[in-house]
Structures are given as C-alpha cells and as structure tokens.
Amino acid sequence: RTIYLKDYRAPEYLVDRTELTFDLDPYATLVKSRLSVRRNPDANGTDTLPALWLDGVDLELLSIAIDGELLPAHRYTEKPGGLLLNVDKSAFVLEVQTRIAPEANTSLEGLYLSNGMYCTQCEAEGFRKITFYPDRPDVMSVFTTTIVAPANYPVLLSNGNKIDSGTTADGRLTVTWEDPFAKPSYLFALVAGDLQFVEDRFVTCSGREVTLQLYTEPKNIGKCEHAMTSLKHSMKWDEEVYGREYDLDIFMIVAVDHFNMGAMENKGLNIFNSACVLASPETATDAAFQRIEAIVAHEYFHNWSGNRVTCRDWFQLSLKEGFTVFRDAEFSADMNSRAVKRIEDVTVLRTAQFAEDAGPMAHPVRPDSYMEISNFYTLTVYEKGAEVVRMIHTILGADGFRRGSDLYFERHDGQAVTCEDFIVAMEDANGADLQQFRRWYSQAGTPVLDVEDTYDMETQEYRLTIRQHTPDSPGQVDKLPLHIPVSIALLGRSGSALPLDSSGEVERVLHVTETCQEFVFGNIPERPLPSLLRGFSAPVKLRYGYSVEQLLFLMRHDSDPFNQWDAGQRLAFDALSSLQQAYRNGTELELPESLIDGLSAVLENTRLDPALVAKMLALPSAQELTEQGGEIDAPAIIAARNFVRDGVAKTLKPQFRARYEALNVQKPYCPTASDIAERSLKNTCLSYLCATGDQEMLALAEAQLARDDNMTDSAAALAALVEFGPADKAQAHLDAFYRQWQQDTQVVETWFGLQSSSPTFGTLDRVRALMQHSAFEFKNPNKVRAVIGGFAMRNFAQFHAPDGSGYAFLAEQVIALDKLNPQIAARIVTPLTRWRKYRAEQSTQIQAALKTVRDSGELSRDLYEVVSKSLAD
Ligand code: ARG
Ligand code: ZN
Fold it and tell me: What positions does the domain Peptidase M1 membrane alanine aminopeptidase occupy (predicted)?
C-alpha cells in the first residue's frame, strides 16, 4: 500500500498528555499508557465524533479503558497495523495496557535489547511497537515516563528531567522522568542497563547550567572524552551561529552496539550507534574522530531543527534532516578544514546521491509517496536536502539566512510544520522570492548544466551561455527549469581572478533560472578561463569543454580550493574514460602524462594544505567512475583505474617516498585538523608506495604497523599490506592485529571492513569465512555493514566478479537478513537495484539475483518496496 502526500489530513484527535509506565522484562514487558485525548479543533471533519485510530504493531493488547471504565469488545476493532476505537466524547482519558517482548525484537525498532541493555528507536514509526498510539509527528504531547526494573538495571533513563526515583516493595528500582516540551512519539526514548557514565557541565549563553552525561557499558568508559568535547563545541556553536540555546537541565547520550543508523535525537536523551560516539586514539581513526564530532553535533542541533520545530508528516523529513545536515556540515567546516569537508561531502553526493537520483528509487527531496518511510532516510533527503538549504544560504547570504532561520524558529516553535513553512520564513524575513526555487523540493533527478563561452577581443565582452536540463525519473517527466545559483570567477593569464565590475568583485553568483540563459561580462581585457560552480554551489553535473591544459592551469591557480581539487578530478575522469575505451578496444593502455605531471606538481607543492594534497592525489573511486554516464563496464573501470594508480605510483615513487619520510615523524596523537591533514597525506603516500609492490616499500608499512602508536596509522598500514602485499603475509598481519584488538568492538569492525572491501584480498571465499568468524554477528548491523556491506558496496572488483557469484551471494544474504531486520535488508540490497546501468551480461546477472530475492517468499514491506520498484518496467 502506497501513502501519498496529497492525502494528508490533520489528526482527528490530539493527545495533550502521555503518561507511560514500563515494567521491564525481556519476554514480557508490561506497558501501561494513560493518554489525555481531545478532539482536534482544527480537524476538517464533521461535528459527529469520528473513530480514533491508534497505530500498533506486534503488540499484545491486555486492556483498554476510557475515563476509568474498561471498554467492552464491541467498542473497538483490532486491524492490521492498529486499533479503531469508537468514541462518544470529545475529551477523555484513554488507558491501554500492552505486553511486548524486547528480547524477540531483532528489527531494532521499538523497544529492544542490545548486549543486555534495554533501548529504543522510535523514528520514524517504532513507537507503535511499544504501545497503541497515534504514531504520527503532528500529534505532540507532554510525556511522563516511569520505568520499573530489577535491581541489576541500576540506570533507568528517559526524556526530560528526572522527577522521582525509589524502590518498590519487592526490591525493584523505579524512576520517573518528565519532559516539559510537547513532542511527537518518534522522539520518545527509554534506556535501562548496568551502565556507567562520564559527566560534564555546560553553561548556556543565558547562564543556565546544563548537566551533560554520556553513558556506556563499563568497558567503554574510557572512550567518551572526544564525544563530550564535541558536544560542548556544538552547544557553543549553535548559540553563536544560530542563537539557539539548550532548554533542559540535562542532556544525555547513550552508546548502543546494535543500531540501524548512526544516531537518534530523542529529546534530552540521544541514542548513538557505539561506532558513532566511542573513540580513543589507540582504537579510533581520524575519520572516526571526525565522524563522531559531526554526528554528535547533528543530533544536538536537532534539538531545535527537528524537536522544538518538528515535521508535520514524514514527507517533510528533509525539513529537519536537510537543514540539520547543512548545520552540522558548517559546524565541521568551522572546526576543521572547510575545503576538505566540502570535498568529502561532495564526493559522497556525486558518488552515491547522484546514483540514487538516476536509479529506480529516485525521489524528490520532499517525496510525493512511499510504501515504507524507513526507505526514505536517503542521501537525497539528507545530503541533497542539505545542498538545497545551502543554496538558500548562498542566495540570501549569511545574514539573510540567519534572519530567515530566526523567524522560522520563532514562528514555529512547538509546532509540526512543512518544508513550505521553512521557505516562507526565509522569504518573509528577506522580502525574497523563492517561488521557482521551490522546485528543488518537488523535482527528482540531477540537473545537468551545459556551459559554453565566447570572448570578443574588440568589445572586451565575455559571454557565458548556460543550458539546464533535468533528466526524467520514475514517475516524473518533462521537468521545469530550476533556480540554480552558479558561483563563478574568471581567471586571467596570470592565474588571478579578473575584476567583474568597477567595485573589484572577483566572484559572482549567477542566478540560472531559464532553460538557456546568457550572461555577459564587460571590460574583460583578455580571454579568461572560467572557474565554474565554485565551492560546488549547486548539486548539479556541470559540463564545459575544458582542455587538459586548462585543467592543469586550474589545478595550479584556482583560488577556490574546491575547484582546484575538482580540476584534478576532471583530468583524472577524462583520462580514465579514454583508458576504459582503449581497454574495450583491446588497444594498449598508455599512461596519461599530463595527469601525472599535474599530480607531480601537487605532490611537490608544500604550500598547499597537506589534506588538500592528499585529496588531489586520490583517483576517483571505481564507484564514482560508474557515475560518468553510459553503460557501466566493471572490468574496464577496474583495469583503467589500476593501470593509472600503478603508473602514478611507479613514476612518482621518489616524490612519494620523500614526502612520506618528511611526514613520518613520531609525535603524540592529536586529532587536530593539522595533524589529521599530515597523517592523511602520509598515508596516501604510503598507499601509493605499497602499490609498487616493492619489498622495501611494504617494509615501510610493516614498520608503521609495528610502531602501533595510533589507529589511523596502524589501520592505513594494515590496509596497504592487505591490498598490496602477498596474501600469506597479509593474513599473518591480520591475525596478529585481531589477537591484539579482539576485545574492542569498534576495532574488530574496522578489521572486518578492511578485509571485505579489499579488491585483492576480499574475495567471496574470504568474505564467507569472515561470516563464520566468532566475532561476526548477523543480528548486529555494524557487523553486517562491515562484512557484507564492505564487500557489496565498497569492493567493486570482487563484488563484480565476472561469474556473478558476488550478486548471488548478496541476494542470499538479503533474503536471510529480511527475516531479522527489514531496514537493513532493504538498504544492503541497493547494489542489486542498479542492474539497468550495467553492460549486457552483468546486467542480466544482477537482475537475476534481484529476481531471486523477489521470488524467495514473503518480503517485508521495506524490502518489497525497493525490489518491486527496481524490477518495474
Ligand atoms: N533522525 C535520525 C538522524 O538523522 C535518524 C533516524 C533514522 N531512523 C530510521 N528508522 N530510519 O539523526
Ligand atoms: Zn538527523
């Protein structure tokens, strides 16, 4: 069954207060709810009282009472997905008792157990697995939660402030929490366990003191410091940049090993995937440190963009997610290197979101329909949604954007609203017109910009002609032109940007609004080289016929570091596509000299930020190359990429060696931007050095691994040895590494992922063996993502083995996973949904694997939606 945005109707009833009591037990948790219900004055119904719908899934109903009187069976009907209740008054107290079995809950939605700890995940529709309730975000209620548990669960947490605690007559513990802020059920949370915590304080801008607590299993208590620091930075940043102050007396974070996503912003009680919060220098890589900082910030920022102002319905998901991703990206940019953060985000967007936009599940930032909302927590809603907010920021400027966000928060505090409300606030605060811009919310697909230019020496006029076009996507054809902000500069022969007007401005945002539009620049004294879409000012594919020389010039001179990097990427893309063609034609592959020259210059440029140098030296990934357009030819992509990588490694070996040695100095680990930058360049050099296969180079990696002073360097050295060293030695290093780290869940996840994603070592046989390893757990999403996801999503070479064995394997795992955890099954199947893009034989094999999934029996709604849409003609 499909749900449509156009069918939205306001709720018939509201719930002003929600009082919950949990009596915890693994197989028989008793949940009592007491709801103060009243007719919604704004419901567009008649004056007769309609039936009350309560969502409920996998619940055992024990009793229902209205105003203290038990309801006879004829007053309600149990239906699939919930309960329909006859109502005879416009306000009443509804009491419901249900029984649930957290131990049997492997979907990790609702209330479940993770390593003996009770925890919840309610977004989007998990609360209905806890009790019968109008489980929709436009029903906002003040929650009071009482938890009763045996004495071996000393920590009992829920949203808001603790208002009571004690011991029952039979020696059990009981705690009551009250959250004064009305919230939808998806923000409810409960945690119970034998946990320890670290504590800190934050004094807000108005002088209120907030207690900060981070809870983990005792063994992880030493891994909390970085997240705590990140939290304090986030709180300060949101005050300074958005004027947003925290609103409760306490803010808690809990780390949980079994979690479907990264983390969850439950009011006052954020719950995190352990991998996204726990870190120590010995066990976490730089990438993990930065991911943690970003996710802690993201969840914290939701307190305003998501909780204080929430979504009216799930079609509006990007209202909170797109905005909050934009907020966390800007935070990370302020804390670290802005250019590198932008490059990383754009790489994800171009690799995975563009693919989604061009695939069978393509949808607008605000979808029009869905079968299962969990399938719409996508790169489009999150990352493209953030790009859409970024474009508003670009169009209105920083001050205008801040005026808009101030108005948005003030006007809608305590409400459940829509993307439209957000745009209107932005318009109203600035007297701006975003009418055409709104199409970004409703049109799917990645727009393509074709740019041409002419220069007239006589008149000193330079003209840019920009055409836009958005390809059709499932259910959407003939798209209208968008309002696209295109930031540009014009570079002169000397490499510096030419003034665009008498004020001396050198960078300008062009507002592209028509299908074809011309921009004229006067007083341009020489033919310029355009630097287009600076900072990636819009989520589009931009085409301009740059020559090799022009790209080399931009790599050297562009003052926008993003475009400097992007010029190198374009050069590599072009070289790699010619090589793919040559491979297909059976002609001999020739090294692209100009690319190597460009990289050589970058490598020797010691004035550039080393992190930027590392990014510029990295070739586009195989996955990114599939986004070039045209049929995907996996063997050709692999052959071309390996050829260039090996060529670069051999040709530039002395330079790589020199920079590696210079950067390979011993100093205490610190995850600061500058140290991270140096390690990233050092390890990029190490990887190229090992790619030569030289004994001596592999020995450098062995020495680095043996030094063992931080996980970034150890994991990079191990990865290089696994990928480029002899298999028997790689195995020995892996075994030793495992023996050293087997007690540490996060390191074991890294260890799994490093093997399954290795294009040389991570064969299907080895991946199957990893699944038999004692540390592998099919019920744990992190392990599944590391081993199965690492193979299917990050190991292009082995997954696309010509015999199709990779596809068949993934189909088999998806079928098994769907029985336990539908959300994870529906995600990990993604590579199979892209079958249409591949060359004939691969395409048939992938499609066949997908059909095996379809025909395997009854599928969850999550998996059914993805599979059926991917096979639809
Ligand atoms: N709101 C969470 C976040 O982005 C993600 C929760 C996703 N849950 C889900 N079932 N898809 O921070
Ligand atoms: Zn979020």
Answer: 227-440
